[in-house]
User: What shape does this take?
Amino acid sequence: MDEKNKVKDNSLIEKYLRNKSNFKEKDFEKHKFESLKLSIVIGLFIWLIISVILKNIIFGGGISIIFSLLLFVMLIQSPILKRKKRAKVIENELPLFLTRLACEVKLGKTLPNAINSTIKSDEKSEISKEFELVLKDMNKGISFSIALNEMNKRVCSENLKRALSNLSNISSTGKKDVLGLKKLTSELLLKQRIESKEFSGKMVVYALVFIAVSAIVPAMFLSFVLIGSYFMKLSFTPQQIFLISVVLFPLIDGGVLIAINSKTPLFLRG
Assistant: This one.
């Protein structure tokens, strides 16, 4: 009864986060406690630093509380983001894996042997690691369909779910029909080609933004400083100009590059 009441008392946000991050209740509570502890410790440290620098305890406390709350939210969300990122990586690896697997099945191998051979061709990929867990589950006596279902729970990807459904049908019927796998592979490759074309169009805009931020804006700033010092009585110390030119603008350039990289499809990254 206590456990049931505990589940009912959980907030909707906690249930959402636990489900999205694939945490069990015990693991989620541990992660939440560790995140809260780390947020408080870092918040107190920031409070001390800001209070000493600004000599204002109340203002430093307010800043540290806001920072601690934001850090706590980020730490709670990190497993969800990692899981989504890993799912995208696996989806990116899925077409090549299915192509190799279909070839192994067409050679007459059983599905577990075909999966094992495909894994050996690229053991370091994330999808190979997942299918390796499937084979380990089968060695423990778990059925193939249940092992695939567990894999689907770990990754949570619609495209992978379709692929696993095809594999489950092949296993249950015993037929070597890989037409469904080939069709799914073609759809995934077509999707990647469409994403590649879309990114190529956006890359023109990204390039213009980067050129503006890295070349035009610094040049305009230096011109503004020179002209403004004569007509607008603007005053910049040499140290300020040095920090803005050598530190601030490169940081902005790095931020733009990071943003472009985050928008780049995984299969186009080096």
